[in-house]
Amino acid sequence: MVQKHAIIRNKAGIHVRPSGILFGKVKDYPGTVSLVFNGETYELNSIMVLLAMGLVQGSEIDIIVNGPDEEKVCSELRELFEREFDFPPRE
Predict the structure, then answer these.
(1) 2, 24, 25, 34: which could join 64 in a potential S-S bond, CB 3.0 to 4.6 Å?
(2) In the chain, what percentage of residues exceed pLDDT 90?
(3) Has residue 87 been placed in a domain?
(4) Is the pLDDT score of 88 beyond 90?
(5) What is the DSSP letter of 68?
(6) pTM
């Protein structure tokens, strides 16, 4: 098991498009990924779980990964959670 702390940096928080990128990293992972936010633990097994957490800029989370290559996966997820996404405006 590996656990890392992350702070959400994206100005719009973790909304639909960042959630898709984050969940895309997790969906085929053979181990488990959990997030701890505001004292609650959420198993990241659905994009809806991630969206329902309501992560906004400045939210602090702990990422817990248990399974193969857990150090690498946890580091990559932390990097994604802390990324400032710059999506082009939709027309």
Answers:
(1) 34
(2) 89
(3) no
(4) no
(5) T
(6) 0.91
Can you list the positions of beta strands (E) in 1-91? 2-7, 32-37, 40-43, 60-66
Residue 58 is part of a domain; what is its CATH number?
3.30.1340.10
Q: Six-digit token pair at 9?
A: 């940096």
Q: Residue type at 74?
A: C
What is the extent of the structural domain holding 25? Answer: 2-81
Residue type, 14: I
The secondary structure element, H or E, covering residue 65 is: strand 60-66
If we measure between CA atoms, which residue out of 1, 12, 26, 2 comes closest to residue 85? 12
Buried b (16+ CB within 10 A) or exposed e, 20-42: eebbeebeebeeebbbeeeeeeb
pLDDT class for 85, splitting at 50, 70, 90? confident
User: How many domains, the chain?
Assistant: 1
Which residues are bridge partners to 38 per DSSP?
Answer: none
**Average pLDDT of 40-67?**
96
